[in-house]
Amino acid sequence: MERIFRESVLFENQKFRISGLDKGDYETCTFRACDFSDCDLSAIQFLGCEFRDCNLSLVRLGLTSFREVKFINSKLLGLHFDDCNSLMISFEIENCSLDLCSFGRMKLKKTLFKNSKISEADFTDTDLTRSIFMNCDLQRTIFKNTNLEGVDFSTSFNYSIDPDSNRIKKARFSMQGLAGLLDKYDIEIDR
């Protein structure tokens, strides 16, 4: 089957969970209010695309390429971003729900996560150098052997980060968030 190429196309209110998305390359396309739940997006390339108000729950991402992609107001449940094509991967996430997503062993330098609920995600062995977690709820998210150098957590909350098992040089935290760096000691902090 021949790969298709789509450029600057608006896909709106599509039910890709039923029809699937054609394998190919999508450049500067917008996906608005589309349902991708349980789709196979493996080996599809997205360049400069935007996913707005979409449901991407349980989507398969084997060798999927995301370059300069934005996820806005979308649901991303159970995604294995670590299965994506890691070459030049770059994306921004804003006002999204990222529950049970895996980013293990990825290079995500300077990535923006904004106003999002990132619950029980896994950033084990991930390079997040100079990324920004702006006003994000990081409840039960795993940071282990993660490069967090220069990462800005100053407006985020509910994180638990072990300074002994992560690189946190020059990372930014708020005074209220310092308790998240002391969790492993099981101490009580009065506020």
Notes on the structure:
The chain is an all-beta fold. It has two domains: 93 residues, Pectate Lyase C-like, CATH 2.160.20; 89 residues, 3 Solenoid (Pectate Lyase C-like). It is built from one helix and 14 strands, in the order ββαββββββββββββ. It has a seven-stranded parallel beta sheet, with no helix packed on it. Strands 1-3-5-7 form a four-stranded parallel beta sheet, with no helix packed on it. It is elongated, with a radius of gyration of 17 Å. The termini are far apart.
Instruction: Note the quaternary state here.
Output: single chain
Q: Find the CATH topology of the largest domain.
A: Pectate Lyase C-like
Considering the protein shown, what is the CATH homologous superfamily of the largest domain? E3 ubiquitin-protein ligase SopA
Tally of helical runs: 1
- Note the gap between the termini: 62 Å
Order of helices and strands: EEHEEEEEEEEEEEE
